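To close the section, here is one more complete example, presented without commentary so you can practise reading it yourself. The ligand is iron/sulfur cluster.
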Amino acid sequence: MDGDHQRLIRQIRQRLESLARAGIDRAALGPLPEMLPVAVAPAVPRIARAETAQAPVDNRPEPKESEPVPTATPLPRRRPAAPTPPSPIPATLGSLFDEPGITEPVVPPEERPEALRVLAAEIAECSRCEVLCANRTHTVPGEGNASARLMFVGEGPGQTEDETGRPFVGKAGKLLDDMITKGMGLRRADVFIANIVKCRPPNNRDPEPEEVRNCIGYLERQIAIIRPEFLCLLGKPAAQTLLNTSMPMGRLRGKWQRYKGIPTIATWHPAYLLRNPSAKKDTWEDLQMLMKAMGIPIQKRGGGG
Ligand code: SF4
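Output:
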């Protein structure tokens, strides 16, 4: 067997393992390439994911989300609905033979919490950004399930987050909690929440491009450790940074994107939703795309919730 055969087999195996983690144990595939030996067809063992959420990796709160904002309009309440079967990842997300995109070695699930703690400790000592480092109270590395299927990424810490060291704990964080719990039917501890910069920009200004460049490696390492199956990018800075584009949010949201091979949805930042409640409809549509792909039952929108 030559090198091309081995590489192809490795790609197929990685892809099948990824589908198995997403709860998909069968798929309608076209004919396999003739050169593919039959021997690679055997079933890929289903990879069990931790049933119970792991303790938050970091113990502190968050960002611009803490800016004064109008009273939140609650997300629609969930109503019981018949569960829908897990949905295959839409064909638009790529083919079976897509490169996974993350080249770092896989960290075993049981080692991920410690790997994230070590990284958080490294972030706490970071002084790459002179201004941010001088003004911060706490670094805010992120928190959540170290083997989360879904990872949310925002822009950066605000005042409350800087004070507590935890992401998304201000008013916008409350709305994100509602999106996760009331909207998606998950628990905050089921997902991982992080930002593209780990220190609060003074006066809640946008992070400078150099600050993003300084810090983005930490997020990349978090993603490589957690290996989320899906990403949800909150707001323009996170979406434009990770998707490497200058396209406006109106064109980025509402469709599947990919970050290093990971199916990715960009949507409005919760702080923006607090200022523009009419945009919640867009975000609910975006969350439903995620839920469908993740096999999460989509509930009917409740009135007046
Ligand atoms: S923002 Fe990131 S790179 Fe800059 S000082 Fe903080 S942790 Fe370091």
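Once you have examined the tokens, check your reading against these statements. The longest strand covers residues 262-267. The chain has two domains: 1-48, 53-85+95-294.
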